[in-house]
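Worked problem 6 (solution included).
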Amino acid sequence: MGRASRAKRAARSERHAAEDANRRELATRHASPEYAAMIAVRTTDRSQAVMTAGLPGQEERLRRAHWEPRVPGDDGLGTWDQPTRGIRLMHSVSEEDDGEVWAHLSVSLRTWTLPEWRQLKEAQWLCYPDHAGIVVVAPKDEHVNVAEVLHVWTKLTGPPVLPDFRKLGQV
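Solution. The predicted structure is:
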């Protein structure tokens, strides 16, 4: 094995160790009573009703596309994998500070690399084929990188949050 290969493996190993440490820290935070209280406030009867209404169609579309359920979610679809392509999605629904119900979808790859646009788009369309999804780039000082994951937010109640971009043609 050449020096460049060893250096790449070492860098990848360091990155994985840092991401594992971030995941452990996040898991510890998620196990805290404070986190449970925050989730309880955001999981309302309204968000549960919106989520429950969409689940059967979402589960059917995911299964048809060869996704497999891994971890059930109390606040959404939970975690699903597509083993042949090494893709994972995590889905939750909550009422946010604006009073609206939003879905959160995170998409990651088993290879520890960012998913491609096509993979993110397909996951979004399986869950919400009739809704616009929003990819957020956080301000630099608010960015938290736990792993190489892409996130899509979908507003499920209230008026649309995006302007109608079709006025200039197709989106």
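Discussion: The chain has a mean pLDDT of 82.
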